[in-house]
Amino acid sequence: MTEGRSSDDEGTVLQVGSAPEDGSHGDRPPADSMPGMVFDAAPPSSTGRPATSAPIVPALLATAAVTAAAAATAAFAWRLEHAGQPMQWVSFGGLYAVFLVMTVVYLAKTSRLDALKPRGGDLSFGALVAVGTYLVAVVLRTTVLDGAPGLSWLIRTYAQLGELREIYVGPSVLLVAAATEIVWRGGIQTALVDALGPTRGWQVATVAFAAAQAPSLWLLSAVGTGPNPLLVALALGGGGVWGLIALKTQRLGISVAAHALFVWAVTQYPVTLIG
């Protein structure tokens, strides 16, 4: 995750004094020698701070590192011997607890901690988005996934998760999903938006989020049905929606609520029971 730095040649937001008629800068010192003055007109980032010219390579390296670590954790958690075991939630929870601390430090260093502060209506709007995405999942279950191989993929995925009514599952899902959202949208997407711009940053972050679930293609495959694309597709679609919300609202409250409540809903009210 990288810190943004301002660029003197992108546009002037604040002009100090008046320039001589000949167009020269007169006695005004260079922009980089005037602390506290902003000479950058770049668009805002996904967390509401001005998106400045940030190094591209560090942002891409941070994205690759988080993606690889998340994929390695998924490869461990989705092993058949871990089906229905708390180890699945412990492994994801441990990974994102570490990344959460790193993300908060990054946001503090770049003066973006305000993006984490909840506001009135965040939970309500997030719940509405979660309901909408859950309804989309229900429609897909009764259409695209109605029959082989889709239904086999769903059954295999829920079998891996195990008994979802265990008392620890609901709270674990909410906490892990909330931490995941803060890391990916608050940390990774913000760094990429600063480095690549809003559209490309959002796109790269969404694809990386989906790529982190790549091990599920094989580990959650059902016999005779080939790779299971459900979690990758869910991460791509859901990550795109949650990332766009963070990008447009320029804070994280709504996307965190939407992500956490949706994952909670699909685990506590499995779509395999519908149809």
* Helix content range: 55-70%
Low-confidence stretches: 3-51
DSSP strand tally: 0
C-alpha termini separation: 43 Å
Which class best fits the helix and strand makeup? mainly alpha
Helical segment count: 9
- Quick check: average pLDDT? 83
Strand fraction band?
under 5%
Q: What gross morphology would you assign?
A: globular
Task: Write the element-wise H/E pattern from the N-terminal end onward.
Answer: HHHHHHHHH
Radius of gyration: 22 Å
Characterize the largest beta sheet: strand count, sense, and whether it forms a barrel: none
Topology:
Layout: H1 56-77, H2 87-109, H3 122-142, H4 150-161, H5 169-196, H6 198-211, H7 216-219, H8 230-249, H9 253-268
Helix pairs in contact: 1-2, 1-5, 1-6, 2-5, 3-9, 5-6, 5-9, 6-8, 8-9
Structural descriptors:
single chain, 275 residues, globular, disordered N terminus, mainly alpha
Structure description:
This protein is mostly helical and 275 residues long. 58% of the residues lie in helices and 0% in strands. The chain is built from nine helices and no strands. It has helices at 56-77, 87-109, 122-142, 150-161, 169-196, 198-211, 216-219, 230-249, 253-268. The protein starts with 55 loop residues before the first helix and ends in a 7-residue tail after the last helix.
